[in-house]
Amino acid sequence: MERMLRGLPASPGIVAGPVHLLRWEVPDVPPRTVTEAEVPLELTRFHDAVERAQDRLRHVRDRAAHQAGPEEAMIFEVQITMLDDRALNSEVEGFIRERRSAEHAFDLVMLEWRRRFGRASAPMLRERVGDLMDLHIRVLGILLALPDSDPVDLPKGSNAILVTHDLTPSLTVQLDRDAIAAIATDEGTSTSHVAILARSLGLPAVVGLRDATTRLRGSERVVLDGTTGVLVVNPTDEEIAQAKLRAEQAAILEESLRSQAGVAAQLRGGERIFLRANVDIPEESEIAAESGADGVGLMRTEFVVLGRTSMPDEDEQYRAYRRVVDAFAGKPVVIRTFDIGGDKLPVGGFPTEPNPFLGWRAIRMCLDQPDLFLVQLRALLRAAAHGDVRILLPLVVSVDEVRRTRALIAEAARTLNERGAVFRDRVQVGVMIETPAAAVAADTFVNDADFFSIGTNDLVQYTLAVDRGNVNLAARFTPLHPAVLRLIQLTVEAGKKRGLEVAVCGEMGSQPLTAFVLVGLGIRHLSVAPRAVALMKRMLRSVSPESAKEAADAALACSTAAEAERIVRRLLQAAAYDLSPAELGLLGSETGDILGYAV
Ligand code: PEP
Ligand code: MG
After folding, report:
1. At what angle do helices 39-67 and 129-143 cross, to 10 degrees?
2. Residue 183 — φ and ψ, nearest 5°?
3. How far is the CA of 461 from the centre of ligand 2 (A)?
4. What is the pLDDT of residues 63-103, one digit of tens each?
5. Model pLDDT for residues 555-587, shown as the tens digit of each residue
6. What's the pTM?
7. Pairing with 54, which of 60, 305, 422, 584 sits 20 to 30 Å away (CA)?
């Protein structure tokens, strides 16, 4: 077997540890009939398996309650109760009485239930599809005596490197962080949500390994390098020593960058750049505030919902937003309304949509479910009483969506007023420019939006028609494509004409090479992963606005992204001559992604 598995760098850090192979997918069940005499035995097997699954879930629930809190533990309580469902049990028993094996009967019922729940009109039922899938896998695993690979109940303190086909965000937040040191997946790219979340959690990650789960057995030791996107299987002593050395060097670089936290974000020559942090998880906000960011440029509120059985109520949301506002004491905090759906959160039956990326998600879903949206808007207005909260709307394609949201904000304010609550309704409302429609028609938003924030992850995806999470397309996900650059240019021009702030909060702003081009296109507001703040300050301070403009002009004149990258790389190295390739994030993997993660 090849010992070097190459994937895509997704979250920095170098870790050595044992592989924990997680196969969290519904196993194949061969249809099997049993004799009449065997029916009682199959019934017993089924009930025993359910009991064992429930025992295991109780254990996981208690651990989750202890580690993460009662709300996170609820999901397991719900699953335990679902297994007691009379209708479910009697349907399985009915199939067994028709002489099907226990696993075949259970498989048939679960497939049907998942289909039925997925089509239900009540969102609460559709939300249960993920739980049904977990139960489907758990109980079949027991009935088929498959090796135990519980995703949320890993051996403690094992410093394990979790290797799995793909991780849903909700599984990721449930993972036991005392047991896992890093993540490696077959699927995914550096802008997929697993990667974003791994960076938020500070867990080193390599994604897009394609077939790591079939190549590995689950007992090997590996070195995972989240900076270059490489996994070394059964490393030699020398390879381990090298990894240690690189980890030490990375720690030194990080330490030296930390000293940058307090310096101002500005270009060579002194022009100010507003460098804010992306905060995905409220619990991370205090750490993010120490990064030296000028506030929060993007809070992805959907992460407040992850791993839960129901939407958080107004008070809970208020507390989550307030925590971020307090951590950033007085600085602007841009909070995005729920961007639920697609690859993010299967709330509301999204898994059943044939085209989730073009589906009922984000602002569309919120506007269609005003009751759900109003809860969030009220929580936001209450949090706004304590700081400079600004509201950002995702996946907007038309100014109607902004107007309808403003009407709902006014309604939320009325309710709060009647209630005598403390709130502020004069909040800025910004539009995410992350569809070609919004970019091309950016000028149609300027009278209704207070600011723009370009979401380059989706803008690249929708412009190039390249699924951002598809590993087979990773090399085609090229932010420096002329179409993308022109759309950004259009947005900047439309914003400038009206004096609107135009920020970038997608990954393009977190990578020195692409951020250099963004500055050259006129962007002065960037929102980046907290860990990238110091690195970006270093890069920004060593480039002049003129050199950035030269790079942007050169990139715009290119007909391909590859050509643009080559030229910009050269210009960046020349402009920031005092920085090393590591500091410029130019380490790169050789598998397609253009850049590595320096810190
Ligand atoms: C984006 O699309 O660039 C963005 C910042 O939002 P998300 O990554 O959450 O889709
Ligand atoms: Mg987006």
Report:
1. 120
2. -125, 140
3. 9
4. 777 766 677 678 788 899 999 999 999 999 999 999 999 99
5. 999 999 999 999 999 999 999 988 887 777 665
6. 0.81
7. 305
> What is d(CA 4, CA 7) in angstroms, rounded to the nearest whole number?
10
In the chain, CATH 3.20.20.60 covers 271-530
**DSSP string across 277-305:** EEE-SGGGHHHHHTTT-SSEEEEEGGGGT
Question: Best substitution site from 192, 304, 393, 457 to test ligand 1's pocket, by max atoms within 8 Å of Cβ?
Answer: 457
| Cβ atoms of residues 46 and 106 within 8 Å | yes
Ligand 1 binding pocket, CB closer than 6 Å: 298, 300, 339, 434, 455-458, 505-506
- CB neighbour list of residue 546: distance below 8 Å, 6 or more residues apart: none
Q: How far is CA 259 from CA 254, 256, 530, 577, in A?
A: 9, 6, 14, 20
Q: Which of 397, 458, 484 to mutate to test the pocket of ligand 1 (most atoms within 8 A of CB)?
A: 458
* Domain at 271-530, CATH from 3.30.160.20, 3.10.180.10, 3.10.580.10, 3.20.20.60: 3.20.20.60
Q: For 184, phi and psi rounded to 5 degrees? A: -135, 130
- DSSP letter, residue 395: S
Digit-coded pLDDT (tens) for 437-467: 999 999 999 999 999 999 999 999 999 999 9
What is 36-143's CATH superfamily? PtsI, HPr-binding domain (1.10.274.10)
Q: How far is CA 329 from CA 261, 298, 386, 453, in A?
A: 16, 16, 9, 22
Q: Whose CA is nearest to atom 6 of ligand 1?
A: 455
**Burial class of residue 371, CB neighbours in 10 A (0-12, 13-18, 19+):** exposed
DSSP state of 442: G
C-alpha span between 399 and 395 (Å, rounded): 11
Residues 119, 352 contacting (CB under 8 angstroms): yes
